[in-house]
Design a protein that fits this description.
The protein is elongated. The protein folds into 3 domains: 14-34 and 135-227, PH-domain like (Roll), CATH 2.30.29; 37-130; 246-279, no CATH class. It has helices at 2-14, 36-62, 67-83, 87-104, 116-134, 172-177, 216-227, 246-261, 267-279; strands at 28-32, 136-140, 143-148, 154-159, 165-169, 179-185, 200-203, 207-214. The strands form 2 sheets. The protein has a 4-stranded antiparallel sheet. The protein has 281 residues and is of the alpha+beta class. It contains 9 helices and 8 strands. Helices cover 50% and strands 16% of the residues. Helix 8 (246-261) packs antiparallel against helix 9 (267-279).
């Protein structure tokens, strides 16, 4: 009973596995998710800033209103808002409000008030973790499948026959961490993808976008092989070396001897060049 409940809970948290979306006879070629360093990295960085905020505010309280600490707190709150536009912004605004309240209050505030930004940061980290587990990118021999959502799962697939080409965009900072964005050109179709959602988009020009995919060029090769199965790799065949004919060799030797007789080359240069010509026979 406990194991069954655990499996059910895990399924609810992460969604159905890729095999549940396959049609009879369909073959799974690749499955993946956005890079965890991107999805979870913001929540972890936000949590770090919130812990620093708490530490600085405690220093402010213990030192009877140490004013430079307030400047550091404001800077930290601005960084939180820049790191994460939803919970980071809320946590940053709340942090500045609490700092101003503590400055204006004669008696000060209880220590737990300074944990409010940390609560926002932990909520953001939890939501990002759920999001990472529920997002799914799949390539089969027939379709490109995308699933995303946190509380409501959204699913869309595009037949490989509708995809015109695959493009990888990888700025320098993404190359450092080994992830990039993949675009599937779909001739203007939207295929049910919500292009306003971050992470998985379909641009109005007709491109399904997978953001922050790990090892994007390897995924690109797999997708290209599925989309163009008839494409054959270019094979370079060793060609036989064409050796100079006897007539051409004789003519070159005459020209070389003529240069020697006119004094345009030394005897040593003549001997070396003559040896090179004869070695090619």
């Amino acid at each position: 009973m406990g194991k069954r409940f655990g499996k059910t809970a895990a399924r609810i948290a992460s969604g159905a596995p890729p095999s549940d979306y396959l049609m009879p006879g369909e073959t799974l070629r690749w499955k993946g998710k956005p890079a965890a360093i991107v999805i979870l990295g913001r929540g972890l960085l936000l949590t770090f800033f919130a812990l620093v905020y708490f530490s600085v505010m405690m220093v402010y309280v213990e030192n009877d209103g140490y004013l430079p600490a307030l400047g550091i707190v404001v800077l930290i709150c601005i960084m939180m808002a820049l790191v994460e536009r939803r919970f980071g912004l809320l946590g940053g605004v709340a942090g500045i409000g609490i700092a101003v309240w503590a400055f204006l209050s004669d008696k000060g505030l209880e220590w737990y008030w300074y944990l409010v930004p940390l609560i926002f940061a932990l909520v953001a980290l939890l939501i990002n973790y759920i999001y990472l587990n529920r997002v799914m990118f799949v390539i089969t021999d027939r379709r490109i499948i995308t699933r995303y959502g946190i509380f409501t799962l959204r699913y869309a697939d595009t037949g490989v026959d509708k995809i015109q080409n695959v493009t990888v965009i990888q700025p320098w900072y993404e190359r450092v961490f080994g992830y990039g964005d993949i675009y599937f050109a779909t001739a203007g179709e939207k295929g049910g993808i919500d292009y306003e959602s971050p992470g998985i988009k379909l641009r109005s020009g007709g491109a399904v976008e997978w953001e922050n995919v790990g090892r994007p060029f390897e995924v690109n090769k797999i997708a290209a092989a599925v989309i163009n199965p008839s494409a054959m790799p270019v094979v370079v065949v060793d060609q036989p070396v064409q050796r100079p004919s006897a007539l051409g060799t004789e003519e070159r030797l005459r020209e070389l001897d003529d240069l020697r007789q006119k004094g345009l080359v030394t005897q040593q240069e003549y001997d070396e060049k003559r040896k090179q010509i004869l070695e090619r026979l």
